[in-house]
Each structure stands twice: as C-alpha cells, then as structure tokens.
Amino acid sequence: MLRIAVLTSGRGTLLRYTISACYDGVVDGEVVAVATNRDCPALDVARKAGIDTTASYPQSSYGSLAERDAVMAADVLEAGADFVLVGGYTDVLDAAFLKHFPDRVISVYPTILPAFGELDESIGPALDYGVKSLGVTIHLRDPHSLSDGPIIAQIPIPVEVDDTIESVTPYIAAVEREHLPLVMQAFAEGRVLREGRKVRVVAPKRRAS
Fold it and tell me: 105: domain CATH number?
C-alpha cells in the first residue's frame, strides 16, 4: 500500500484524482500529506478530505531551497509518507527532499519530454512551434529540475493546427486522470524497476481462472 504525499501549487486537480483513485480502490494507497509552496486552493481540498498533514512551505520563509525541502521532507515522513506525487508544483526539488524517497517521487509533465521541458507553461510554446502531438509524460523527479528524470510512461495526444491551450487542456487532463493511477498502482505492486536512465514497468500477473 502506498502512503502518498502530494506536492502541488494550484487548484488541486491531481490531488482530487488521487484521493478518488485511492478511495475507489483503483490505487492501493492513501494520501497522508499535502504540501504546497504557497497558499492555494489545493490546501482547502486536502483539509476537506480530512488529510491531517496539510501545510504550505513558502521558500521565502527559509534560508535556502535545501533548508525548506529538508523541513518539508521531515514533515511528510512524520505523516508516514513513502511515495510522493508532484502535480502542478512550481518549484524544483532539492536533493535534501529527494534523498528520503529514492525512485519514489514521480511528476507529471504535459508534453512528450524531453521536448519543451523546464517551462512554467509548456503547452503554448509547443503549439506555437507547430507540433503534431502533445502528450503526458510521467517521470521520476531529478533534483533542481522541473522536467528531467527517468521516464516511466508517455501518452501522446494528437493536435491540430488550430488547437489552443484551452482546447487541448481537457484532453491532457483526461489522459492524466486515466494513466496516473495506473502508474501509481504499478508502484504499489512493486512493478516499477529502474535501470539507470531507463524505467521498466512490468505487466501485472494474470490471475488464475
């Protein structure tokens, strides 16, 4: 069973999906902590869901990113978290956080990485460039990067010349909602294996009929 900490900075969309996926049994897990880097609606989502460890960690309150991330890691560890989902979180993570969850911090990025990585908003630049497909990349998180890290899964989404951020965002959200729980369940079942920069997701065992 995954004991999940969610890091976010926004409305809490992925947080809602994750709570629902755990409640519905799609993911064998429980959200035990939510951490943000600023006051945001996701904090209210967490509190209404009854998640006890819910806090904001603005970097301006700490001497350095490493200091802030060490405190944040200590708090989510105390809540019992052993897995971290980074969704819509606007800061990079320091090694002071990641070292506590080796190969257990995943992130979602709305393009087919490595294209258009390290951007606060990547969909618009990708469409302006004229790409024929966007997509969702689920990857392990590397320190001091928004988009680098071994890739776990990539799901392409075709786009048209006249598509806009507004027209494609619902499709990206739907893909995230469908595929992120599958990846988290693979972690819960021990089916995610890292081999250097490559990540292998082993298919689930078939149940005997």
Answer: 3.40.50.170
